[in-house]
């Protein structure tokens, strides 16, 4: 991966281009914070900007180009727009202004929303796999790997029980195992991977490294500077939705640590 | 590993590149990058949806199963719920009100139960369609799939629910002296047409509900009005006797009335073709195709905008 880049720097192939990207969330009924019916009514009657809608400008004009073979860390304090930026790159959040160009379909590592607590782990694996766009055959093929990787069945036959009966750690392990079962071109990983016990954390870190090798470009959101240093060669630092710094990991992290007062 | 990649990182920023000076759009064009989250063409969209057919089916079945998973009787409720429904309607309209309105009891009870089940099929498809996007924002924001999968999946869930109700309906029909005959085969095309119609409506209201979630509050009232105008509990012909011809005709082409009447005609022995408006099959086909095509295109036109909160 590294050699490839060194050999022909001139032929760097862009995989993700973000051009002056703006993302705005619209929150209904949060304008005044008063939830009473009369307040809502007066909002409706008062024409003007947009009625009863508060706008949250989460990403403000971010531009960058990511190349094949790069592993890019996204850092910044809470609420700085990291996860939002990832979703926009994945094409899941519509852009208010600006554009994101991508090579193929970037995918977000995460499948939580597709799973249902009332269903057995078994059915959730199938549902989650299909939701991520795997074919039925692929799901069948990977099924046993997913179960083994999650380690759910280490303490008895839990996979045939509804997910709501799992402990939070077990559920998190199963979710990660399903999400990590698919290979991706452009892979985006949102933090909170440090779930489960120590043993499972190690196993999942390993799996992420594998996924990175297979993927063309990897984005990683994390608050853990060590894991960024371990996995990324370039870092984007977001603050209040703006790109504050973009560069090699060491440089950016040094500034970031100064900023956060470490 | 980390050491080597760091070096590359430095090189990335320092190296001059032949792509220098290109705008983002030009750069994207040069390497064949596409706008992320852009709406695919209609043909491509249909192709993507077809590729997701297993997900659509699995999602609808999962929703159906999850519905009763906490109940002690479990999946038995799939049949018990419509059975109880039929029982309540029989009690109220058959026993207390004697509302048969010119029909013998043997015809009226299956007439009523058929009407209730067929209308509920459309009604619940629309209700779940309204929330298909707005109620599943988490899913829409986390994974990539043609968004039409959701409303279609919900409509499919209602179809499966109806199949359970059909078992009850058969029992009721037989119990009141309408025995299986060749005309029961008509149920299949009727259900297919109504399913198309429901799916189209679910797609259309899903887009509206995504933009205006308030629609979910308003919809029950619209649907209830529609129900009382569709002749679920009474025969339109009988109630409207003496009114101008065009009023009766207008009420008879109402899609809900068309599907209900067709189903009654197929199932109930004493409910003959004289109760059906002229060209009833053409009307049913028209509603199914027009609403499905219209709803699908209407939904697709906003594909890239779903997920904005």
Textual characterization of the structure:
The complex is a heterodimer of chains A (about 260) and B (about 300). Chain A has about 260 residues and is α/β, with parallel strands linked by helices. The radius of gyration of chain A is 21 Å and the shape is globular. The model of chain A is unreliable at about 1-10 (pLDDT under 50). In chain A, the strands form two sheets. Chain A has a six-stranded mixed β-sheet with strand order 5-6-7-3-8-9, sandwiched between helices. Chain A has helices at about 1-5, 35-45, 80-90, 120-130, 135-150, 170-180, 200-215, 225-230, 250-260, and strands at about 15-30, 55-65, 70-75, 95-100, 105-110, 185-190, 215-220, 235-240, 240-250. Chain A is built from nine helices and nine strands. Helices cover about 35% and strands about 25% of the residues of chain A. Chain A has a domain at about 1-105 and about 220-260: P-loop containing nucleotide triphosphate hydrolases (Rossmann fold, 3-Layer(aba) Sandwich), CATH 3.40.50.300. With about 300 residues, chain B is an all-alpha fold. Chain B has one domain (about 40-305). Chain B has 14 helices and one strand, in the order ααβαααααααααααα. Chain B is elongated, with a radius of gyration of 25 Å. Residues about 1-15 of chain B have low confidence and may be disordered. At the A-B interface, helix 1, strand 1, strand 2, helix 3 and strand 4 of A face helix 1, helix 2, strand 1, helix 4 and helix 7 of B.
